[in-house]
Structures are given as structure tokens and as C-alpha cells.
Design goal:
This protein is mainly α. It is built from nine helices and no strands. The mean pLDDT is about 85.
Length: about 190
């Protein structure tokens, strides 16, 4: 039984034939991989580039003009990908001394838990406000809207928004204090 030609496989790939793509990949990937590997000298990079090469073949099979053999076309794509990869700045690994000098500003698990607990208490405190005050606090602090925007949404004058915000914060501070919540984070 005669093998299907590369050109025939490319024609079938161009119309979305996955089996033809598998056949083309199986037929050429080892040689193309070795070629790329010799250029980039990294198996991980070569693996990535081979994936890119055959993705390009899948996407561009309809543009294959037949001016060269399919394998030449594949090697051309692979060469371009390898040269592009070689032009990219190399990732430098951190040495141990530099890695230890990096400051970790992230909260530790205890601080995260404390913030979560305070957040839950604060939500309960906000829930104890009047609906008008709760609405103003929600729009200003949680949705980060300006006084002008809140006035337009709630359909009240800006001065009324400011007054409600003042009394809402004052009342919230009282409720928070009664619930053991101080003003700062740990």
C-alpha cells in the first residue's frame, strides 16, 4: 500500500482533517525536533517550539503554495521559531543570596485570618445601619463612587449624601466599637 504524500496531507489539513494532521506530525516531528534542539540547545524550549510549529502548520496549511517540499516548509517554520526564541532575552535564575534578599510583604496566614474575621464583623456592623446609611456606605466605599455619582443614583442632593455619609460613618464607628472592632488592621 502506497503512503499518502505530504502534499496530500497538507491539502487535507487545510480543510481541517485532524487525522491528516496527526499523520503529518508523526511523520516529521522527530526530525524537526532534532533540528530545533540543535539550534536552541534546550529540550524544554524545543518541545515548546515544536508545538508552535505544528500549530502554525494547522493554521496555515491553506497557504502552502508548493514552491518547496512540505518538509522544507516545516523546517523553515521551525528555523524561524528557533531563531526568534534565541533572540529573546534569556531567563536568569536567581542565585540563593539574591533570592533570600527578596522581601516577602505578603500577609502571613494569621494576619489573613484576622483580616477576614474583622471583615466579617464589619459586614455585620454595616448590616445594623439604617437602609439609607447602609446604601450610602455601600456606594461610596464598596463601589468607590463619588458623592456626585451617589447623589445621581439615589436621587438626593449632594449635600444630603455628605450628611448621610457623615452620620453613617459616625454610627458605624459606634456599632464597631460595641462589637470590639478597633479602627486599624493588624
Amino acid at each position: 500500500m502506497q503512503a499518502v504524500s505530504d502534499e496530500s496531507l497538507i491539502e487535507r489539513v487545510a480543510v481541517g482533517d485532524r487525522a491528516a494532521m496527526r499523520s503529518l506530525f508523526e511523520r516529521h516531528h522527530v526530525r524537526v525536533f532534532r533540528f530545533v534542539l540543535r539550534m536552541v540547545r534546550s529540550e524544554a524550549i524545543a518541545d515548546d517550539l515544536i508545538s508552535e510549529v505544528f500549530m502554525d502548520v494547522w493554521r496555515q496549511a491553506g497557504r502552502f503554495e508548493g514552491r518547496s517540499s512540505v518538509s522544507t516548509w516545516l523546517f523553515g517554520i521551525a528555523r524561524f521559531k528557533a531563531l526568534s526564541a534565541l533572540r529573546k532575552p534569556a531567563h536568569r535564575s536567581l542565585d540563593e543570596e539574591t533570592a533570600e534578599a527578596v522581601v516577602d510583604d505578603a500577609d502571613d496566614p494569621e494576619i489573613i485570618r484576622q483580616k477576614h474575621d474583622k471583615s466579617m464583623v464589619l459586614r455585620r456592623c454595616i448590616g445594623k445601619l439604617s437602609p439609607e446609611h447602609r446604601e450610602i456606605i455601600d456606594l461610596v466605599y464598596y463601589h468607590e463612587m463619588s458623592i456626585e455619582e451617589v447623589a445621581g443614583i439615589v436621587a438626593i442632593p449632594e449635600a444630603t449624601v455628605k450628611t448621610r455619609l457623615f452620620y453613617a460613618r459616625k454610627r458605624l464607628a459606634e456599632i464597631a466599637k460595641d462589637n470590639g472592632l478597633d479602627r486599624g488592621w493588624p
